[in-house]
Amino acid sequence: MERRTGTVSRGIRCPIIREGDDLAQIVCTSVVEAAAIDGFALRDRDVVAVTESIVARSQGNYARIEAIAEDVKTKLGGETIGVIFPILSRNRFAICLRGIAMGAKKIVLMLSYPSDEDEAGVNPYSDVLTLAQYRALFGENKHEFTGVDYVDYYAQIIREAGAEVEIIFANQAKSILAYTDCVLTCDIHTRARTKRLLKAAGAKTVCGLDDILNAPVNGSGYNEAYGLLGSNKSTEDTVKLFPRDCEAFVLRTQALLQEATGKQMEVMVYGDGAFKDPQGKIWELADPVVSPAFTAGLNGTPNELKLKYLADNDFKDLSGDALKAAISKRITEKAGSLVGNMAAQGTTPRRFPDLIGSLCDLTSGSGDKGTPVVLVQGYFDNYTN
After folding, report:
1. How many C-beta atoms lie closer than 10 Å to residue 326's C-beta?
2. Chain-centre distance of CA 239, in angstroms?
3. What is the DSSP letter of 114?
């Protein structure tokens, strides 16, 4: 029978995951049982995606804020530390800031300007604002969705942790060096560039969040590649770190699924999707990567044609079965054989793990859906399937 559906994304309900659980087996069992109970077939090239949070939880990859404080003090000296370009998040950064402040005598917190700096007459390429100047220009500037004034909130966290705080606003990393030469840069995807700029400008010590807890401290959890990047609040005094050893996990899960179903499925671990909220202007990817590990079949980028371009241009005079046949023929030929204008009309190249991980993040959500595993079917199908 002819199929009428393309890509389907299903959240798979799982039991609550605890430290030490055999997560690969739980994922396999949950997917197989969901297919049997809900009445859908599992196929080759289905994608089973597992949220990073339950991978880290099964590993017990946690750390207390005291471990953060000790590592910060050891690596940045424990005196005046510049903390620059943090994200504004109660879940993602606030608890990390507590640990950072506990490892210093003074924090100089450098935040970027709000988005309307040009209207305020500020030069975003050079001006440094004090807190008083910022308040005079922008007022409280509360977060659109949460209603939190993160300037006050972060200052309060630092003081309660026992450190002195000074807050400045600038868009150039090197501006912090007028206040201290020991800097913790908290940006995520631009961190390598920021570190280079600071070192070139004469910073004495430069670390990123990826350098904090990149090894265990007094038995704490850690992540050798990403440190505190990708961490989340677990309790008032504990963070859950980004998971480790994900490659072994996805390979074992793939093997268990093949043994149970006879199908060659792909498996990935995913965190935040890579997209930006158009209303709040929030860049969703607070994790260092969308997917820390995935099986080999998810390597690469799509090699697709834009059907809407074909329908509006090359085949604009065709309809019905004739149009379907023409498009199917063109897809079979694939984009590599096309020349001229059509060669430039393919889809924007993005990696499969980033695309599928973004789909899974939207499917699973971050609340109470109870579906930390997502099954994606038909993603690699095209018009001819």
Report:
1. 15
2. 16
3. P
DSSP 305: B
- Alpha carbon distance 147, 95 (integer Å): 19
175-177-182 Cα angle (round to 5): 135
Residue identified by tokens 């590649």 is 225
For the chain, strand residue ranges (E) read 8-12, 47-51, 62-64, 80-84, 106-111, 129-130, 164-169, 182-185, 205-208, 232-235, 238-240, 266-270, 293-294, 373-377
What is the pLDDT, as a whole number, of residue 49? 98
CA dist list (Å): 94 to 9, 107, 308, 348: 33, 14, 45, 36
Q: Does the structural domain 62-240 have CATH classification 3.40.50?
A: yes
Residues 173-186 pLDDT 10s: 999 999 999 999 99
pLDDT digits (tens, 9 = 90+) for 51-78: 999 999 999 999 999 999 999 999 999 9
First to last CA, the chain: 12
Q: Work out the pLDDT band at 301, boundaries 50, 70, 90.
A: confident
* Cβ neighbours for 86, distance < 8 A, ≥ 6 positions apart: 93, 97, 109, 111, 154, 186
Residues in the chain: 385
Q: Please state, in angstroms and as integers, the Cα–Cα distance from residue 349 to each residue in 123, 300, 345, following that order.
A: 35, 9, 11
Higher confidence at residue 189 or residue 142? 189
Most confidently modeled range among 137-141, 260-264, 279-283: 260-264
DSSP assignment letter at 207: E
Residue ranges of the domains in the chain?
8-60+243-302+349-377, 62-240, 307-344
- pTM listed for this prediction: 0.85
d(CA 311, CA 326): 10
CATH number of 8-60+243-302+349-377: 3.30.1330.100
Res. 262 pLDDT band, cuts 50 70 90:
very high
Calculate the average pLDDT of the chain: 87
Do residues 307 and 6 touch, judged by C-beta distance below 8 A?
no
- Per-residue pLDDT averaged across 326-339, rounded? 54
| DSSP secondary structure code for residue 39 in this structure | T
Query: Is the pLDDT at 203 greater than 70, yes or no?
Result: yes
**Cα 137-151-239 angle, rounded to 5 deg:** 155
